[in-house]
Amino acid sequence: MRVHARKAGVAGGTLEETPLATVARVKRFLPFLSSRPARASALGRDALAALATTFLAIPQGVAYAMIAGLPPVMGLYASVVPTIIGSLFRSSRHVVSGPTNAVSLLVGGAVGALAQDLGAAPAEVALSMAMMVGLMQLGAGLLRLGTVVDYISSSVVLGYITGAGVLIGIGQLPNLTGTTGAHGDVVTQVAGWLAGLHGVNPTAVAVAVSTASLVVALRRLGQRVPGELIALVVATAACVGLGLSDRLAVVGDLSPVPASLPPLTAPAILEPRLLMVALAATVLSLVESSSLARSIADRTGDRLDLSVEFAGQGLSNIAAAFTGGYPVSGSLARSALNHSAGAQTRWSGVLCGVFVAAGLLLGGPLIERVPIAALAGLLLVVAHRLVNVSRIRQTFRAGRADALAFLGTLAGTWALRLDHAIYLGVSISIVLFLRRARLLVVRELRVDTSGRLREVATEGASPATCVRVVHVEGPLFFGAAGELRDALGAMAGDGVGALVVRLKRAQGMDLTTATALAAIAEGLAEQGRHLVLVGMRPDAMGVLERSGAAARIGRANLFPTQDGWFEALDAGLARALALAEAPEDSPLRAYLAMRAGRAQQG
After folding, report:
1. 498-507 vs 467-475, strand pairing mode
2. Burial class, 119, CB count within 10 angstroms (exposed 0-12 / middle 13-18 / buried 19+)
3. What are the phi and psi torsion angles at 579 (to 5°)?
4. Which end of the chain has a smaller Cβ tally under 10 Å, C or N?
5. b (16+ CB within 10 A) / e for 434-453
6. What element of type H or E holds 504?
7. Taking a C-beta distance cutoff of 8 angstroms, is the pair 455, 443 a contact?
8. Cα(462)–Cα(79) distance, rounded to whole angstroms?
């Protein structure tokens, strides 16, 4: 039910909000107030999921702060209050805010140079950057700019993430060998590392390789096994027990990790150059967070409000600025673990922040003794995971535009400053959008009183039906993926066992929309429901096949266009009615019977 938000004013016919509408608008950005009280059983599962996520958050917080060139404790601080605030104010109940590898690398690429130019400590620059990022994200949410991220191609994001993975790996090579490195572009860093190989520390190499091997081995036991934490604990215990600490640099050599709660801090730097880097971090964080939230929502059936997501992420970054952290985002690894570990409500994220704070109080001095080489081994595994070879192959198979967007952004991460690489990627997305921008039209098809299948307006309540038919017109490129996802999500409401989507008049399908359709199909399948696609032209079928979406949707549920009128639609409807076990008196069954009768008469 919609609340009427405005009424006519007295003077000049102006429109004024009613008090009820104002309350509704404010409540929209306070999602924790709308959450149902959690039962004791749900809180128990939330606590277990939070504990599992904490075991991942602690080692990642330390490691990602090292990527950012900041004191390791800042990664832990960024995993306490920002995580709690993000969980309370985000639209998603599963996404966990905190340090991430991609944002940390962007911060690290700018903080050191800016700190030197400004004569400030890197931590001071990072705090101010978090404040700027938070304000921009909060503003984007309040201005309802949630759909803006739909116009950034997934190929651009993949290019940046792949480039970031390579840069993270190269950046850890000196820590792997226990030698000195060099700052600069990829070539400069590799050359500096090679020049120092005469002083290789065999102990550091052994610790790094052993840690990486243990992380990989434990990962095979399942996502819920805290492989990163176990590997760091084993490496630290072995170094202390074997008396190797004097041969290795440890976290405490970089900066102390006090046994205390996050301090109150005040960002105080306002510099135009910092603002430009913060804008790039804002874009990256929003794309990363919204993509993650949508991916999980596809599986849970939750309805997202991206504007609330933006505002919640902004508040999380503002909290980081005032509690000793640095720019944060939605963490893919921690959010996926939170969901798979059985989290039921947003309180799992809140408890995760509380547990990390307890870890700080109890284990601060222990974290100081973690060998830097062990963290290097962990980060090399992280870097390897960021280079997703299968998705890169799908991108090249999907089409020339996706491949060019990927390669352009990838080259930018290696040749340009990372914030400039973000702007390059956004520019590529804008160019692709302007070349192909059109409106996407989604209408429902229903059987009318004469027994014909006709388009109808979708506003208002829809009659209960176990099979729903949707007609899509327009270009299915990456800018329309979010609109398509939202429209089909609204159509696949409660009671709909199968959703039939006719794509006869849709053109230009690319990797992003193919992936979105596959994600919708998988989300429905997890709920025992089905997605059936009909009327795809050969070019669209090619993208579905090359991207792997056809296999994910199920080839039995794909009915490409055929020579005869409505043959593909009729076959798809029959398939959907069988999958949904539609009743015999279903209007769609009567429609198919009428069609079959006419075919026999013809």
Report:
1. parallel
2. exposed
3. -65, -40
4. N
5. eebeeebebbbbbbeeeeeb
6. strand 498-507
7. yes
8. 44
Distance CA 47, CA 68 (A): 30
CB 413 within 8 A of CB 426: no
- Look up residue 499 and give its two tokens: 């959703």
Q: Give the angle subtended at the CA of 28 by the CAs of 22 and 30, to the nearest 5°.
A: 110
Nearest alpha carbon to residue 226 among 58, 339, 104 = 58
Tally of residues, the chain: 602
Residue entry with tokens 């089909």 = 488
Name residues of the chain where pLDDT drops below 50: 1-15, 460-461
Task: Enumerate helices (H) and strands (E) in the chain, giving the number of each.
Answer: 27, 10
- pLDDT at res. 18: 61
Report CA-CA distances (Å) from 66 to 62, 108, 132, 247, 358: 6, 9, 22, 20, 21
Amino acid at 200: V
CA 360 to chain centre: 27
Instruction: Note the pLDDT of residue 491.
Output: 87
* DSSP calls for 288-304: HHHHHHHHHHHHH-PPP
What distance in Å separates the CA atoms of residue 289 and residue 308, rounded to the nearest whole number?
A: 12
The confidence score (pLDDT) of residue 201 equals 94
CA 147 to CA 488: how far, in whole Å? Answer: 16
Q: What is the radius of gyration, based on Cα positions, of the chain?
A: 26
CA nearest neighbour of 232 among 406, 52, 368: 368
- Name the helix (H) or strand (E) containing 88: helix 81-89
Q: Are 228 and 269 in contact (CB under 8 A)?
A: no
**Nearest-angstrom CA–CA distance, 372 and 247:** 11
User: Side chain identity at 238, as an amino acid letter?
Assistant: A
CA distance 37 to 55: 26
The reported pTM is 0.75
Token representation of residue 321 = 């600025």
Instruction: Identify the helix (H) or strand (E) that includes residue 190.
Output: helix 186-195
Q: What beta strand segments (E) does 223-311 contain?
A: none
Cα–Cα dist 177/479, whole Å = 45
According to the model, what pLDDT value does residue 36 have? 59
pLDDT at 22: 65
Residue 600: per-residue pLDDT: 67
β-pair partners for 470: 444, 501
Q: Do residues 95 and 292 lie in contact, with contact meaning Cβ atoms separated by under 8 Å? A: yes
What are the C-alpha distances in Å from 20 to residues 1, 33, 455, 456, 593? 14, 16, 36, 32, 50
What residues form DSSP beta bridges with 531?
499
Contact, 502 vs 468, CB < 8 A?
no
- Of 378, 306, 237, 273, the closest CA to residue 92 belongs to 306
User: Which pairing describes strands 530-534 and 498-507: parallel, antiparallel, or unpaired?
Assistant: parallel
3-state secondary structure of 505: strand
Predicted local distance difference test score (pLDDT) of residue 460: 43
CA distances for 57 relative to 18, 100, 219, 333, angstroms: 44, 10, 15, 9
Say how many C-beta atoms besides its own lie within 10 A of residue 541's C-beta. Answer: 17
Q: What share of the chain is helix, strand, coil (3-state, %, to 5)?
A: 65, 10, 25
Asked if 498 and 530 count as a contact pair (C-beta separation under 8 A), the reply is: yes
Question: One-letter amino acid identity for 16?
Answer: E
DSSP codes joined into one string, 443-472: EEEEE-TTS-EEEE---S-----SEEEEEE
